[in-house]
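Hypothesis: this fold can be encoded by more than one sequence.
Test: take the structure tokens below, design a sequence, compare later.
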């Protein structure tokens, strides 16, 4: 089953870094997932996240306010 990954952030450099890391991990490990960028502040607020970037996997907030390592993202996706 495909995972739904949402990256919450207004498009700041950290948000872009997180997007890059997550998409690299998906490609490198052949993971079935879709990435959705959520840049609308009202949409981000619905997740009750105050610090971005935030990583949401299947509607569960897994990381917020920092950029994860590739190994950390891979562990969360497995």
């Amino acid at each position: 089953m495909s995972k739904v990954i949402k990256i919450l952030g207004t498009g700041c450099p950290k948000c872009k870094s997180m997007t890059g890391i997550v998409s690299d991990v998906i490609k490198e490990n052949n993971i079935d997932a879709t990435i959705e960028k959520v840049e609308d502040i009202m949409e981000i607020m619905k997740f009750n996240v105050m610090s971005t970037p935030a990583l949401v996997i299947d509607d569960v907030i897994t990381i917020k306010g920092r950029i994860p390592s590739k190994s950390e993202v891979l562990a969360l996706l497995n």
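The chain has a mean pLDDT of 95. The longest helix spans residues 13-28.
Hypothesis status: open.
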